[in-house]
Amino acid sequence: MKTTILLISSLALASASSLSAAIINNRATAYASYWSASGANDGYGAGLKYSKQFAGFVMGDVRGSYYTFDASSTSVVPLEASINLYLPAFISPYAGVGAGYYFVDSSKPDFENSSGYFAQIGADMELFGLGVFGELRYIDAERVFLDGVTANIGISLKF
């Protein structure tokens, strides 16, 4: 009898957890960012990201950012989309890949708009619909000067 009650309780808890993850599956995020680009020195910026859970452990996101690279008088506006695998929990690690288009405004003639792709790892920590996140990404762009690592930290709201 005790075993049956324990089994039913465990299944109910697992079902409630799965139902909660299925209901709360959208997230809006604002973040600050650092970009160490190979040809444009260090850049700093900010961005907005919208994430949506598609199934179980799969989440996609779209984002837009703005970066300035003062040493090269360059600004970059990336528009990107990615697909991520994540583990839903209080602290949720994730890894994913994506692609983007990078609009470049620069006084340097060889710095032009570019497309590219990236790989990323990160983690979200959530409590009562609010969260914080951090991530590292490696960008490989068509124009070599944009290749490099970005680090993002931000706050998110689940709805």
From TrEMBL:
Residues 1-21 form the signal peptide. It comes from the Bacteria. This is Outer membrane protein beta-barrel domain-containing protein. The keyword Signal applies. Keywords: Signal. Gene3D superfamilies: 2.40.160.20. SUPFAM superfamilies: OMPA-like. The lineage of its organism: Bacteria, Pseudomonadati, Verrucomicrobiota, Opitutia, Puniceicoccales. InterPro entries: OMP/PagP_B-barrel (IPR011250).
